[in-house]
Structures are given as C-alpha cells and as structure tokens.
Amino acid sequence: MIKVFYSSILISLLILSGCNQSRIIDEQKFVDFYADMSLASDSIGFDTESLKSIRIELHKKYGTSEEMFNETIKHFHENPKQWDSFLSKVMDKLEEDRKSLAR
After folding, report:
1. Is 4's pLDDT higher than 90?
2. DSSP characters for 35-101?
3. What local confidence, expressed as pLDDT, does residue 1 receive?
4. Phi-psi bin for 63: left (phi > 0), alpha (psi -120 to 50), beta?
C-alpha cells in the first residue's frame, strides 16, 4: 500500500513537471519570436495597444500563447546563464537580419 502511494506521488510529479516543460517555448522559436518582438517595439515605441496587437499576431505566427510566453520568460529568468545565452542569440539574430536587409 505504501509503495503504491509513493509510486502515485512520483508519477504525479513527473506528469506535472512534463506539463510545465510543454508550456515552455522551444529556444530557437523563442529567439525568433523575441527578435521579432524587439524589432516591432523599436519601430512602434511606447504605443501599448499596437504592441499588444503585434504580440497577438506573433503568437499566431509562432503557434504560441501569452501563457507560454510568460512561462518561458520565467524559465529563463530563473536560469541566469541560460538567459544570457538566450539574449546573445537574440542579438546575433537581429544582427544577421540587419545584414541581410543591407544586401
């Protein structure tokens, strides 16, 4: 009976941790999403309604949701080294996009 109880707890924890991971956006997709969002916010400025509208469109484009976005941000903020690596990748993507537009 005790083994069944502990097994049930272990299975529940594994399922819950798996569910949390599925709400985190794949890193490369998130790099692309974040770079697009950064470009949009640079061109729009502080117009919050336009930024909200663009973010909704980006969620459609990338097949994500606001909840997934928030969970992903939370995940990266809890892992500072991973956050730094992520931001470097975003900067590299923005630089690569800038160079391809200049051609």
Report:
1. no
2. HHHHHHHHHH-S-HHHHHHHHHHHHHHHT--HHHHHHHHHHHHT-HHHHHHHHHHHHHHHHHHHHHH
3. 54
4. left
Sign of CA dihedral 56, 58, 63, 69: negative
pTM to 2 decimal places: 0.73
Q: Residue 23 CB: number of other CB atoms within 10 A?
A: 16
Give me 32's structure tokens: 């692309």
Q: Residue 76 is which amino acid? A: F
Tokens 């919050």 belong to residue: 48
Q: Residue type at 103?
A: R
- Using only C-alpha atoms, the chain has a radius of gyration, in whole angstroms, of 18
